[in-house]
Amino acid sequence: MVGVLLLTGCGSDGSEGSAGPTQPVPDIACADGGQVRGSGSTAQENAMSRWMEQYRLACPDVQLVYNPVGSGAGVAQFQRGASAFGGTDEALSAEDVEGTREVCSGGQAIDLPMAGGPIAIGYNVPGVTGLVLDAPTIARIFDSRITRWNDPSVRRLNPGAELPDLPVVPFHRTDDSGTTQNLNAYLKGAAAERWPYPAGKKWQARGGESASGSDSVSSAVIQTDGAIGYFELSFAVKRKIDTVRIATGAAEPVAPSTASASVGIAEARITGTGKDLSLRFDHRTSAEGAYPIVLVTYEVVCDTGNPPDSLPALKSFLTYTASEEGQEQLHSIHYAPLPSSVAAQVREVVSTLS
Question: What is the pTM of this model?
Fold first, then answer.
């Protein structure tokens, strides 16, 4: 995939790109110059594009590059020293951290959460809107144990709905995916008795149809009567796909949105040690308005041992992305901002990078 490349030395008069000449300049403490290369998660590609565009307006002397090659490749490139930060949809494993000690001279890599978002369950059932499902029912659907849309389990959750006698066609990802990993983690956490599969990036449930990438899965759902699949909310919004409201035990079923995902992320707790801010989610949460299937993308950086020629620009850019202004950009592009307390901790850690 072609990376997101913004050469901020081209000037900030707004004559290029999507930023018009009247767009306000963000209040950013800029570095004097330098280049910051990042690579990794495709889930955060659009967020990176927006952040880089805004940073460009204020800091024309810094060059920013982000290459959306996927979480695994992004971590691998960071470990080789090919990038200043890696983007990943899953916190580093202990083995991953060990693999960074050489590139992080005198230190190690840490996870900094930066953006979140809901993983929507989209469906195509003619005549049915506002579909409600719970975790055990979703697990049985994606494991091909519920095969008709008028199954008693679905009817119980949707009293009064005219559910057709139509085959259920579940779609999953063929590629290793952070989106798959987060859905697996939700089902493993919220419906363990119905979901015997590991919370990994590979899909292992039985049956169903498959496609590569969220774009292809969402396209397949549109084109197939009775289909159901999972993808980032932006794909559902773009293609006007109906999405499942999830019964969590709260007073009302929760629909996927940036606001409900932020509430869900706020239910998470920081489990990283030292400067690492990796999160663990409460997939069984019944908090009002908390959407339980969420994805958080992390920026992987060295706590110490960063190259001195890129460090000031790296700290400046990540301070902006975790700022109130940087996080506020996310709603409009279907991402969920971090809880303010977590964002404040990210900024504090960024200030200590060396």
Answer: 0.81
Tell me the CA end-to-end span of the chain in Å, nearest whole number.
Answer: 31
CA distances from 325 to 143, 172, 218, 233, 287 (A): 42, 35, 31, 22, 27
The pLDDT value recorded for residue 22 is 63
Taking CA atoms, 195 is separated from 137, 178, 295, in Å, by 10, 18, 19
Residue 213 has which token pair?
């990438």
Selection from 281, 327, 274, 324 nearest residue 302 by Cα: 274
What's the half-sphere exposure (Cβ side, CA atoms, 13 Å) at 32? Answer: 2
Q: Which residues of the chain have pLDDT under 50?
A: 1-20
Q: Give the model's pLDDT for residue 300.
A: 97
Q: Residue 121: which of 254, 30, 288 has the closest Cα? A: 254
- Dihedral sign computed on CA atoms, order 214, 220, 223, 228: negative
Check residue 2 and give left, alpha or beta (phi > 0: left; psi -120 to 50: alpha).
beta
User: In sequence order, what E strands does the chain have?
Assistant: 4-7, 34-40, 62-67, 85-88, 109-124, 132-134, 169-173, 209-211, 227-232, 242-243, 245-247, 269-270, 279-280, 294-302
Q: pLDDT value at position 43?
A: 84
Over residues 182-197, the pLDDT tens digits come to 999 999 999 999 999 9
Query: What are the chain's domains?
Result: 4-116+297-351 (3.40.190.10), 118-263 (3.40.190.10)
Q: What is the C-alpha to C-alpha distance for residues 168 and 229, in angstroms, rounded to an integer?
A: 11
Structure tokens at 122: 């989209």
| Residues comprising the chain, all counted | 354
Phi, psi of 8 (to 5 degrees): -75, -5
